[in-house]
């Protein structure tokens, strides 16, 4: 059985997709077979992995069809990347959230889709939308655990608290247990605000949940632009070691 990990924070702009792609790359680097599900209608991970054409193609089938129709399965939409297999997002995914509202078992659709996988990867990384709603709830219901990215700035405090309130609600309403594997404090800089937030992250979550410090590195941006994780990028980057540590924790 694949371990399913949702990368989630309803606050936008926290580097969620960077964390998701590089954690997937780290798992691949240590020999794991990874399926990446881009559940975000914005398709940043799909673009960041080099599949802009698949995102823009409205001729179908797509992840939208997988979640809302019995005419295709997730196996029909998978594409191969050097480091993983990808269930790409698609422009039609912007219609998924409102249309799922009236569907039966709407928050279970992703879990039902993953049950139809022909292959059995070691890990499934789910990149969630940057908001709370049916799609994020479906990822929380489908996953075994979460990794929470958050900026090292004061606005992260409330966002993380709201996310954990939602996790508690899902656990209570659906009788599920969702583990927290790690906190990824992202885009850390050498300033007072970052220092204060790192102290907050560590005092709030450690030692129960490890906190990883992801510093701003141009190499991470260039790897994304080249459609790969830092591990298949030509430049060396000290953040690779951090993602490898995170991969060992989630395994």
From TrEMBL:
Signal peptide extent: none
Segments forming domain AAA: 3-178
Organism superkingdom: Archaea
Gene3D superfamilies membership: P-loop containing nucleotide triphosphate hydrolases
InterPro entries the UniProt entry points to: AAA_dom (IPR025669), DNA_Partitioning_ATPase (IPR050678), P-loop_NTPase (IPR027417)
PANTHER family recorded: COBYRINIC ACID AC-DIAMIDE SYNTHASE (PTHR13696:SF99), P-LOOP CONTAINING NUCLEOSIDE TRIPHOSPHATE HYDROLASE (PTHR13696)
Name of the protein in its database record: Cobyrinic acid ac-diamide synthase
Native species: Halalkalicoccus jeotgali (strain DSM 18796 / CECT 7217 / JCM 14584 / KCTC 4019 / B3)
Biological classification of the source: Archaea, Methanobacteriati, Methanobacteriota, Stenosarchaea group, Halobacteria
